[in-house]
Amino acid sequence: MSDSALNTFQQISHPILPEATADELSRQEFVKSLKSYIQSDILPGLKLSYDVRSAPAYAKENGELPKDRWAVRKAMKHDPYFQGYVSLQRISQELMWRSVIESVDRQLPELIAKVDTIKGVGGTLDLDSHFEVPHYVTALDIHCMPGGYAGVVAENDVAAGAVYDRGVYLYAMGYMGPFNDDMGRSVCNYVTRKFPKFKPEKIVDLGCTVGHSTLPFAEMFPDAEVHGVDVGEATLRYAHARAEGMGLKAHFTQQDAASMKYEDNSFDLVVSHILLHETSGKAIGEVFKECYRILKPGGLMIHADLPPFGDMDAYQQFILDNETYYNNEPFWGAMRDLDQIQLSVEAGFDREAVSFDTAPMAIMEFAMADESYSEEKAKELSEREFEAGEYAPGGGWEVLIARK
Predict the structure, then answer these.
(1) Order of strands across the sheet with 295-305?
(2) Cα angle 260, 262, 265; round to 5
(3) For the chain, what percentages of helix, strand and coil (3-state, to nearest 5) are there?
(4) pTM exceeds 0.90, yes or no
(5) Using an 8 Å Cβ cutoff, are 218 and 248 in contact?
(6) Could you tell me which residues come within 8 angstroms of residue 254 by beta carbon, excluding any fewer than 6 positions away?
């Protein structure tokens, strides 16, 4: 197997990424394997349990089969197979964070000190000591990540960023690619194919966390000025050090995407990657208005996330909505029920200029193009379906696109 194939689904180190000991790495790989086992071996049996036991029992009691995700949940919530499945999912999530946090805690002073030693390429970091993180962000530990994305545990902290960077790789079971950048890279590929004459000079990534989806834009649009916005102090400090260490120039700033300090008509491209399903329903409308305000005429707004519930049957909706109930994702289901096209229109975009599309996953395309992969493996990747669990995008990411 070639080096490129070997690294496709393995995280590649960079100057600020925590280095796990052999024991820490073993525990982390165990969690990744457990998550893969749950999704590939446990999950398929859940549909059988639903079809054979839960759905018929519900129909017998109610005179009809479940029509929506709430009815499916009512039918399934007491099923022992389902209870075992969601218990394993939750346990794997908690084990994942624990396996990463112990590694980060051990070397946090070293990571903080390393930030100042990384030789940069000219990117900037703008933190606001008076910034108030929105309550919907601080009210819970999103994805069960202890302390949440905006938590701060030390002076000049980078812990949340370090935990997130490693945790995302494990959570996605390697499907975010060697630099956790598959979403950003997929959107970049989509833009260059769909709009070949579009040459953005100024780009901003909203809800950038550690900048993993931001940097592909700096790489693939080298003449553009690239910005990343987030509410988390520690994640932004880590994002800045990460970008500088990887030799990619980006400007990170602590702001709320629903109320930014950028001037009107100042960006050619405004993007986000899985921001919407971690944002309150009220804030999403404000984010869209801000996107419209800061976009130049002719500019593009692209939000990459997971498909709306309207594209799925009741059972698939139920499976995916488990993130709301068992993985601290309270806005997950609500976001999928919103009319995002109408919200875009209310923000100022013309209805004819707003649509949904699919951006193929860059990592899938890369793996299938690699000659070291067998024909069977390539076929398996190309046919990977949107099954369940939050990270199961199948062959592509759903993108909401609007042109000003």
Answers:
(1) 124-126, 251-254, 225-230, 202-206, 267-273, 295-305, 396-403, 354-360
(2) 120
(3) 50, 15, 35
(4) yes
(5) yes
(6) 126, 127, 128, 131, 229, 230, 231, 232, 233, 236
**Whether residue 381 has pLDDT greater than 60:** no
Domain range annotation of the chain: 3-120+155-161, 178-403
Element containing residue 399 per DSSP (H, E): strand 396-403
Q: Please report the pLDDT score of residue 334 as a whole number.
A: 80
Domain 178-403 is of which CATH architecture? 3-Layer(aba) Sandwich (3.40)
Going by their DSSP bridges, the two strands 354-360 and 396-403 should be labelled as: antiparallel
Looking up tokens 């839960």 gives: 54
Tokens of 84: 């075992």
Least confident among 142-156, 208-222, 333-347, 379-393:
379-393
Continuous H helices in 78-158: 80-115, 135-138
User: DSSP string spanning 153-217?
Assistant: -STT--HHHHHHHHHHHHHTTTTT-TTS-HHHHHHHHHHHHH-TT---SEEEEET-TTTTTTHHH
* Tokens matching residue 299: 């500019």
